[in-house]
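Checklist before submission:
- one chain only
- standard amino acids only
- sequence pasted in full

Submission:
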Amino acid sequence: MTERSLLNQLVDALRCLPGVGPKSAQRMAFYLLEQDREGGRHLASVLEAAMERIKRCRRCRTLSEQELCGLCAKPDRDDALLCVIEHPSEIVAVEQATDFHGRYFVLGGRLSPLDGIGPEALGLDLLETQLREREIQELILAISPTVEGSATSHFIAAMAARYQVRTTRIAHGVPLGGELEYVDGSTLAHAFAGRQGVEP
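Returned file contents:
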């Protein structure tokens, strides 16, 4: 009975992953237990270490083991350009698809008052500090064009306007309601090259 209960706990735990339903979780659990226990132990060990040691970069809020992530620590990035994105995975997409050499700021989501996600949850106080204290000339909004994304973009554009920072937004090729991490590289590169001004 205890064994079965632990198996159910493992299946339920695996369901926390995106896109993993009950059947997929059950298949994974049985695979690890029947075919690759060593892989399961390694996964558990690395997962525990990652949960403990990976935090947010103090400058851009991406995921990092260090206080400053690898990109923020690079002195050759262009401090005059700041690209605001929703999730750390989108940094990889932009880096692979474009020749952007500026800095990043990761929100970790979009403004959604109904879900209790306000400016503080997205680190917008830190973004405002950077707009005030750093010599940023262009703020690039690479935020998904959903209803919440548009509201977030307008909020940030208004904030940037208070510090006379030019705000642009990636435009062409990104479908309405689309998520950036699922857009192919050439479409994202085109969208980045065709970014447009945003009125606060």
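Reviewer check: The beta strands are 55-56, 63-64, 78-85, 102-106, 138-142, 166-169, 196-197.
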